[in-house]
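can u do me a favor
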C-alpha cells in the first residue's frame, strides 16, 4: 500500500472519529429523564452585554437524579440565567431562591420518550451520512489515482476494501451508541 493511500485512510479515520465525537455530544444533550449538567450545554447568558456560555458564569451540579442546581458566581446573574433557561424552552421551570437556581427535571411521558428516540435516530442518521460521505470521498480519491495511472489494480482493490471495512466499523459504533441511548431513554 502506498504512502498516499495510508495517509488517506488515516485522515478518513480521524474524520470518522470526529463524527462519533459529535454524535456523542449531541446525544448527551438529549435528556433521558435523568438530570445532567450537559442538558444546559449550549445555553448562553447575557453577561454584561456579551453572550456567554452558562458554564462560564455559574457552577452547574446534579445533587440527585431529578435536580439540577445552578450557582452563579455573581448574585446579579440569577435573573439572566433564569431568563435564558426559560427562553431556551427546554421544558424546565427554574426556581430562583435568591442564592441558587434549582431545576426539577420532570419525568418523561411515553409520547415524549418516543419523540426523543426519533430525535436520537435522526442524530445517528446524520452521523452515518457523514461517515458515508467520507467513504465516498476516499473512494473517489483512490479512483482518481487509478486514472492517473499511479495505482495498480491490486492496491486499488485492497484500499477500497480497507475503506469499506473502516466505514462498516464506524457505522457499527454509531449503532451501538444509538442502541444505548434508546435503552436509556425508554427505561422508566
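np, heres the sequence
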Amino acid at each position: 500500500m502506498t504512502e498516499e493511500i495510508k495517509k488517506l485512510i488515516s485522515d478518513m479515520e480521524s474524520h470518522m472519529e470526529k463524527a462519533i465525537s459529535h454524535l456523542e455530544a449531541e446525544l448527551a444533550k438529549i435528556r433521558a429523564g435523568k438530570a445532567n449538567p450537559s442538558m444546559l450545554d449550549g445555553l448562553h447568558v447575557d453577561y454584561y452585554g456579551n453572550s456567554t456560555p452558562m458554564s462560564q458564569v455559574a457552577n452547574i451540579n446534579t445533587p440527585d437524579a431529578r435536580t439540577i442546581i445552578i450557582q452563579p458566581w455573581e448574585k446579579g446573574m440569577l435573573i439572566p440565567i433564569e431568563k435564558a433557561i426559560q427562553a431556551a424552552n427546554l421544558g424546565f421551570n427554574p426556581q430562583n431562591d435568591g442564592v441558587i437556581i434549582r431545576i426539577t427535571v420532570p419525568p418523561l411521558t411515553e409520547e415524549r420518550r418516543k419523540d426523543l428516540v426519533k430525535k436520537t435516530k435522526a442524530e445517528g442518521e446524520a452521523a452515518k451520512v457523514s461517515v458515508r460521505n467520507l467513504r465516498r470521498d476516499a473512494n473517489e480519491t483512490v479512483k482518481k489515482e487509478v486514472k492517473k495511472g499511479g495505482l495498480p489494480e491490486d492496491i486499488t482493490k485492497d484500499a477500497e476494501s480497507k475503506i469499506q471495512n473502516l466505514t462498516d466499523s464506524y457505522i457499527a459504533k454509531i449503532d451501538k451508541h444509538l442502541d444505548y441511548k434508546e435503552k436509556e431513554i425508554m427505561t422508566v
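The longest strand covers residues 58-64. hope that helps!!
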